[in-house]
Write a structure and sequence with these properties.
Blueprint lengths: L9 E3 L2 E3 L3 E4 L6 H11 L3 E5 L24 E5 L6 H13 L5 E4 L12 H13 L3 E6 L3 H10 L3 E4 L13 H10 L5 E3 L5 H9 L4 E4 L1 H4 L4 H20 L20
Parallel strand pairs: 3-4, 3-10, 4-5, 6-7, 7-8, 9-10
Antiparallel strand pairs: 1-2
Helix pairs in contact: 1-8, 2-3, 3-4, 4-5, 6-8
EC number: 2.8.1.10
Catalytic activity: [ThiS sulfur-carrier protein]-C-terminal-Gly-aminoethanethioate + 2-iminoacetate + 1-deoxy-D-xylulose 5-phosphate = [ThiS sulfur-carrier protein]-C-terminal Gly-Gly + 2-[(2R,5Z)-2-carboxy-4-methylthiazol-5(2H)-ylidene]ethyl phosphate + 2 H2O + H(+)
Subcellular location: Cytoplasm
């Protein structure tokens, strides 16, 4: 059984979370709507792009951090927009300088069409940030070898994508995710491409420790309703994974004995 199977709560580094649904804060129609959706989701960890955190001289009503209750949520800056390790490390340090937690969602994608994470730069940045005492949540392609390399470096969790960011295509990388989950000694958080609650449930059923959702909820007609649906789907998927359910079979399996008839 995997490292967190006998635990009800999610553990990352020295923190414990009762919710296994993580939420990103981009693309909402307003900060106020975002705050309501976060509450509906039950999340305890939210990610904020440093370029959206508006650290500096802005009007208070425009400041996203004003709408995030630090007593309720762990606010984790992410390095979205960084094209290489140097930029990502600089953004992570900026977050700490602005008073945010020494946690970071490490996200490096040098091209803008597919937004796929750069494995080489991600590993380089993770090495630096772990040495500096950051809890690193490493966004990555669903590459089992890279996942183990990042674990060996000392990241707090790996975040393999289900499909490209914002694509809503679900678990296109399922086979690789299964290997990552099987081999991992740290939390596996499926991030990117989850467009429906059923996608989140499927990720949890295969043994992921958590999922991160942003676009699907933010752009929904009713973000609060969809946030609640994702919350229930994550719980259902986790319960299903822990239930010891029967796995897929190559042929039919009778549900009733076929040896006698009335």
């Amino acid at each position: 059984m995997r490292h967190q199977d006998d635990q009800e709560h999610l553990h990352i580094a020295d923190r414990e979370f009762s919710s296994r649904l993580l939420i990103g804060t981009g693309k909402f129609g307003s900060h106020a709507l975002m705050a309501k959706a976060l509450e509906a989701s039950g999340t305890q960890l939210v990610t904020v792009a440093l370029r959206r955190a508006e650290i500096g001289e802005v009007r208070p009503e425009e400041h996203i951090l004003r709408y995030l209750d630090r007593d309720r949520y762990l606010i984790v800056p992410n390095t979205s927009g960084a094209a290489n390790a140097e930029e990502a490390v600089r953004l992570a340090r900026l977050g700490v300088a602005a008073g945010m937690a020494r946690w970071v969602k490490l996200e490096i994608h040098p091209e803008s069409r597919y937004l796929l994470p750069d494995p080489v730069e991600t590993l380089l940045a993770a090495e630096v940030l772990v040495r500096e005492g950051f809890v690193v949540l490493a966004y990555m392609n669903a590459d089992p070898v890279l996942a183990k390399r990042l674990e060996e470096v000392g990241v707090g969790a790996v975040m393999p994508l289900g499909s490209p960011i914002g694509s809503m295509r679900g678990l296109e990388t399922r086979s690789q995710l299964e290997i990552i989950v099987e081999q991992a000694g740290i939390p596996v958080i499926v991030d990117a491409g989850l467009g429906a609650p059923s996608h989140a449930a499927a990720a949890m059923e295969l043994g992921a420790d958590a999922v991160l959702v942003n676009t699907a909820i933010a752009v929904a007609d009713d973000p609060c309703a969809l946030a609640r649906a994702f919350r229930m789907a994550v719980d259902a998927g986790r319960i299903a994974y822990r239930s010891g359910r029967m796995q897929r079979q190559p042929q039919a399996v009778p549900t009733s004995p076929l040896t006698a008839f009335l």
